[in-house]
Every structure is written in C-alpha cells, then in structure tokens.
Amino acid sequence: MIRSKLVIFSAFTAALSAASCTARNEPTGASNTALLADFAGGWRSTTSPYEFIRLSVVSKSSEQGVLAAQLSFSGVQWDGSGHIAGDSLVMPMTFTGTTQSTGTVVARKGDNGMLRLQIRPAAAPATDLTLTRDN
C-alpha cells in the first residue's frame, strides 16, 4: 500500500515538474516583442509622395541594447538612438551635428518584412510611412 502511494506520488511529482518546465520554456508575448534584426539595416519609404525618405538603423557599439538611426530626406538628416520597447523602436531625434531636438521616430515591424514608421516632428503633425529594406 505504501509502495503504491509512493509510485502515485512520484508520478504526480513528475507530471507537475514537466508542466512547470513546459510553462517556463514557452515564449510569452514573443509575437509582440521585436528584435534587433527586425529594424537593423537600410530602409526606404514606399509611401507616396515620400519615396525619397531613407532610414538607416545600426546597433550602437558603445551602449548595450541601444540602436542608432539616421533618417534622411530632401538633403536633411536627423540622428537618434533608442531602445526596443515591446514591438517598437522609439528614438528621440536631433538634426545631424546638433543637440536640437527635432522630434521622435517610432518604428514597428510590419507585415511581409516591411517597417511601419511614424515620424513625429516637434512642430508639425505626425507622418505615417511604410518602408521596405534597401537592397
């Protein structure tokens, strides 16, 4: 009798351990979490009439987990850096070579390898763009 209870207890403990390990190993919210590879590289706008806008995103070697970006359009360049927060890369931007804040850029992973970008200038309405990787 004691032996059968011990076998049942062992089986129950093994089942709980397996369930616990499975729960810990399952990614939670993985589909809502962006990765460096989702943003890194060169991008160009496919949104008319903004096809001239380009975005370049690289890992910033001087700071762990920080991405640096350069947004260029019509001879103007904005520089910025930021972190991935959930499904977005959020970067405060400045004019290249200055500390003057120009706004914020928010990038999100879109469908089919596209990037959804929202440019939020400090003194103008936000602009939504779709970008594709530059080849």
Mean pLDDT: 78
Helix content: 10-25%
Shape from CA axes?
globular
Number of strands: 8
Sheet with the most strands? 8 strands, antiparallel, barrel
Structural class: alpha+beta
Strand content: 35-45%
Strand order of the largest sheet: 1-2-3-4-5-6-7-8
End-to-end separation in angstroms reads 72 Å
The string of secondary-structure elements, in order, is HHEEEEEEEE
List segments where confidence is low: pLDDT < 50 over at least 5 consecutive residues: 1-30
Radius of gyration: 23 Å
Number of helices: 2
Question: In brief, what are we looking at here?
Answer:
It is built from two helices and eight strands. It is α+β, with helices and mostly antiparallel strands and 135 residues long. Strand 6 and strand 7 form a beta hairpin.
Describe the structure.
This protein is an alpha+beta fold and 135 residues long. 21% of the residues lie in helices and 44% in strands. It is built from two helices and eight strands, in the order ααββββββββ. It has helices spanning 2-25, 36-39; strands at residues 41-45, 54-59, 67-73, 76-85, 88-95, 101-109, 115-121, 127-133. The protein has an eight-stranded antiparallel beta barrel with strand order 1-2-3-4-5-6-7-8. Strand 7 and strand 8 (127-133) form a beta hairpin. It starts with a helix and ends with a strand. The model is unreliable at 1-30 (pLDDT under 50).
